[in-house]
Amino acid sequence: MVDFDRETFRESRRLVGRLRELEARPAPPTVLAGVRDRLGLGDGYATFETPLGPAYVAFVRSGIRMVDLADTPADFERAYRTRFGREARRVARLPDALERGLREWAAGRRASGLRFDLGGLTEFEQAVLRKTLEIPPGEVRPYAWIAREIGHPGAVRAVGSALHRNPIPLLIPCHRVVRSDGQVGQYGLGDEAKRAILAAEGVDVSALETRARSGVRYHGSDTTRIFCFPTCRHARRVTASHLVRFRSSAEARAAGYRPCKVCRPGGEGDAGSDQPPAAPRLF
Fold this sequence. Notes:
Blueprint lengths: L5 H19 L4 H10 L5 E7 L2 E8 L2 E6 L4 H12 L4 E2 L5 H11 L16 H10 L8 E2 H7 L6 H9 L12 E2 L12 H10 L4 H10 L3 E4 L4 E3 L14 E4 L2 H6 L3 E2 L24
Parallel strand pairs: 1-4, 5-6, 8-10
Antiparallel strand pairs: 1-2, 2-3, 7-8, 7-9
Helix pairs in contact: 6-7
């Protein structure tokens, strides 16, 4: 049996206490970020070109986490850290698959290769954003359409709030969602930015707002007897001589018209404005 003197015993206890203190302290964020980088799990970001100018895109291995038009890299890093509690590090170039997807998006095509990490959002918010991804470039849908499509027809204002909190604007195209009365509505990156990005995608914003003021919600074809949202690709093919305008879906149905199976209009435009409450820009 080994004999320890009292001083050695006290020193041992002090050492154990210090080790316990170290165990309770979290590692510095830079250490955690470095470990994630080495494991291929780090949060990276770079810039890409948009019709609104250069934007920052942050990503992890599972997909894109955030997009913003921050003024400086430091501003973007701060916003990312505030939202996710993690450090994002600037990278020299984007991963190949992400770069290809962004090129497709910039060319106005559906960027099917883009993957998104929506962790941290509620199931409802994720459902709203996934449904928004189904709206093709050059087309718009009302908030109420999203609510109906995801099985919550009464949650129009909640849909608007979820879109205002979208962490990946532009790529998850909340700019393609408008008010049920046809007005363009508000946008987290600014109302003028919404008009600019819609115009860049081929939407005639002036025509959109003119229809809204006139009360027209749907376009129909007197040859097919089908009615659509006016920006639907099928509605855009209807010639002026065969175009019929409707102020409500009830009016269209009463005239013997069926809803388009592609854009799936319902009664979204019948009740007037469904503009969600104004929300501040998040980033």
